TrEMBL record, chain B:
Gene: GOLGA7
Annotated Golgin subfamily A member 7/ERF4 domain residues: 11-123
Location within or outside the cell: Golgi apparatus membrane
Species this chain originates from: Xiphophorus couchianus (Monterrey platyfish)
Keywords: Golgi apparatus, Lipoprotein, Membrane, Palmitate
Subcellular location, principal: Golgi
The protein's name: Golgin subfamily A member 7
Function, as annotated: May be involved in protein transport from Golgi to cell surface. The ZDHHC9-GOLGA7 complex is a palmitoyltransferase specific for HRAS and NRAS.
Family of this protein: Belongs to the ERF4 family.
Recorded topology in the membrane: Lipid-anchor
GO biological process: Golgi to plasma membrane protein transport; protein targeting to membrane
Matches recorded under InterPro entries: Golgin_A_7/ERF4 (IPR019383), Ras_palmitoyltransferase (IPR051371)
Length: 508, 134
């Protein structure tokens, strides 16, 4: 839809030109319905300038087929799942079905085939859909929220929670430092994908994606149908072996159909976990809880006599219907929408786009709190010149290790060096000059590559105690390179902390 | 000579979670808009939007039938058909368009469709008053 200027006449109307037409076409039908069903053929077009929003998506997801398919970064286990299912089913159809079809009933392979197709369909749908990612706040929104937070309290640090009464139960909404929003109830920030996900259930490595509001039903149907398929294959392989053994003896049977052993072993070991998981999720659905809530015991009676789940409809059937047959909301992130020049961008970083890997070179200037950034950087540079900086290092407790975990200000360190000391993200230490220059060097190198990876774990260290300092050499905001891409998400909070820390240090 | 109107301020209407996770927006009238628009008019707009979102997320027989049908066809049915939610979102877009054209743009305001902000906020852009520049 092209932008049509709606010209408001002058005269009694005071405004010369306000554009009332939407600048971007929302294409929810294509993005939500196309994703997860059979992925269409991937166009090979990859330009140097990003054309679509998925190419500048700030989370750590991989996109395939021009944004139609969305998965987590680590997909190794997903391929394992795929191989196991395909192998076991393939062997079943190849070795056991001919005998069963001729000696028992042709309905057996037919039912098996239907189950198999359903399992694969649900797996793809669960793996490839957007789980319900909440887009990050635009700079204006973030600034507005900050103002509200600061104005409501004079104590430092300002409270980053909001309390809301839902059906008589008090629920705390937490502020997400990465996405710069107050998370809706039941949403949670996935540290692996670095996104806030609505109705976050868990991050499933087997499926290679988060499980959230939009793909929970697919995930559940996947594990349910997989349980049936596993039990189906297991029982019919046993039947096949027994029937054959009665005729020709056990050892001959094993010689004729060696694959059966493999199938039995795989099915036997998977059936416990998959059936168990299905049962667990059936319980969760009937009580309208998420895995996250259940694990944390958010609505357990132990927390308090009056503690109950405010989201439950009170009745098992309604809860099940709501989870499985409720309306399917469209994707909020509009992956395939075109990038508008005037569309407010959140903190843009390159995301690892998998198979069709794309390294965007387009740089965005980000409206961060410039004055604050400059001020705090001045403080840091001043402090770096003083010997106080090289006194006792301040070490924060390391955050859970991530494969390519790198700190915020060290965002320029590429993913190929996971062993590099990471500042600001996992461990904040005051380093000596040698390491500073080392960091500087790396920083400079990576400006050329314009790669950026950053991690911001859940409940990020931005609210860390005073004394937490990023590596001074990494305050690259004042870097003279004309094309600077930096991640202001952790910058802003770290700036505040660094300023406070340095003021404290310098007053010693 | 026509110029693009300059943005003076932005007001954000946040979500109202008192009924749970359903998409509802706060109907509280923001103070920045006091001089710009009638309170009743504004609240009416927000209330209508809230009703439309409730309709989109309603757990009724229509959504149930749609859900069952989709499940039976392995969700392939959504290749040719829009979901109920999407249909209502289109209606919401049209409604906001209408409201902007008739009521808000003449007063120097612009409502942004919440779907463009991830259903987090209704962004109201206040444009500069150019009456003195003439």
């Amino acid at each position: 839809m092209s932008q049509i200027q709606h010209a408001v006449p002058d005269g009694p109307m005071r405004y010369t030109q306000i554009c009332t037409r939407r600048t971007s076409c929302s294409s929810p039908p294509t993005s939500s319905s196309a994703a997860g069903t059979e992925p269409p053929s991937c166009p090979g077009h990859r330009g140097r300038t990003p054309r679509r929003k998925w190419q500048v998506f700030p989370g750590r997801n991989r996109f395939y087929c021009d944004g139609r398919v969305m998965m987590a970064r680590q997909t190794g286990v997903f391929y394992l799942t795929l191989v196991l299912i395909l192998l076991t089913s393939g062997l079943f159809f190849a070795f056991d079905c001919p005998y069963l079809a001729s000696n028992l009933s042709p309905a057996i392979p037919a039912v098996g085939a239907v189950l198999f197709v359903f399992v694969m369909g649900m797996l793809f749908r669960a793996s490839f859909s957007d789980p319900g990612v909440l887009p990050r706040a635009t700079p204006d929104e973030a600034a507005d929220l900050e103002r509200q937070i600061d104005s409501t309290s004079c104590s430092k640090p300002p409270p980053r929670t909001r309390e809301v009464l839902i059906n008589g139960q008090t629920v705390k909404l937490k502020y997400c430092f990465t996405c710069k929003i107050f998370r809706p109830p039941r949403a949670s920030h996935c540290s692996l994908c670095d996104n806030c996900v609505e109705r976050f259930d868990h991050h499933c490595p087997w499926v290679g994606n988060c499980v959230g509001r939009r793909n929970y039903r697919f995930f559940y149907l996947f594990i349910l149908s997989l349980s049936f398929l596993t039990i189906f294959i297991f029982s019919f392989v046993i039947t096949h072996v027994v029937l054959r053994s009665n005729r020709t003896g056990f050892l001959t049977t094993l010689k004729d159909s060696p694959a059966s052993i493999l199938e039995v072993v795989v099915c036997f070991f998977s059936v416990w976990s998959i059936v168990g998981l299905s049962g667990f999720h059936t319980y969760l659905i009937s009580s309208n809880q998420t895995t996250n809530e259940d694990i944390k015991g958010t609505w357990s009676r132990k927390e308090g006599k009056d503690n109950y789940n405010p989201y439950s409809y009170g009745n098992v059937l309604t809860n099940c219907c709501a989870a499985l047959c409720g309306p399917l909301p469209p994707s909020l992130i509009d992956r395939r929408g075109p990038i508008q020049a005037d569309t407010p961008q959140t903190a843009p970083q390159s995301n690892g786009t998998g198979g069709g890997s794309y390294a965007p070179t387009q740089l965005h200037s980000h409206m961060c709190d410039q004055d604050q950034c400059i001020q705090s950087t001045k403080f840091v540079l001043q402090a770096a010149a003083t010997p106080l900086l090289h006194s006792d290092p301040v070490i924060l407790p390391p955050l859970p290790a991530k494969p390519t975990s790198l700190g915020g200000p060290c965002a320029y360190l590429g993913p190929a060096q996971p062993t590099l000391p990471s500042c600001a993200g996992d461990v904040l230490t005051l380093r000596d000059v040698a390491v500073d220059s080392h960091c500087h060097h790396r920083l400079h190198l990576h400006h050329l590559h314009h790669h950026q990876h950053f991690v911001s774990p859940e409940e990020t260290p931005c609210g860390t105690p005073q004394g937490a300092l990023p590596c001074p050499a990494h305050m690259h905001l004042q870097h003279p390179a004309p094309q600077v891409r930096y991640d202001p998400v952790t910058q802003d909070s770290l700036h505040e902390d660094s300023v406070r820390g340095l003021v404290k240090l310098s007053s010693v | 000579m026509r110029q693009q109107a300059a943005v003076a301020a932005k007001v954000f209407i946040q979500r109202d979670y008192s009924n749970g996770t359903m998409c509802q927006f706060q109907t509280k009238f923001p103070s920045e808009l006091e001089t710009k628009i009638d309170k009743q008019q504004f609240e009416e707009t927000i209330r209508t939007l809230n009703n439309l979102y409730t309709e989109a997320e309603k757990l009724g027989s229509q959504s149930f039938v749609e859900g069952c049908l989709a499940c039976l066809t392995a969700y392939a049915v959504f290749l040719c058909m829009e979901t109920h939610y999407e249909k209502v979102l289109k209606r919401i877009s049209k409604y906001i368009q209408e409201q902007n054209d008739k009521i808000y743009a003449p007063r120097g305001l612009l409502l942004t469709d919440p779907i463009e902000r991830g259903l987090r906020v209704i962004e109201v852009t206040i444009y500069e008053d150019r009456s003195f520049s003439r």
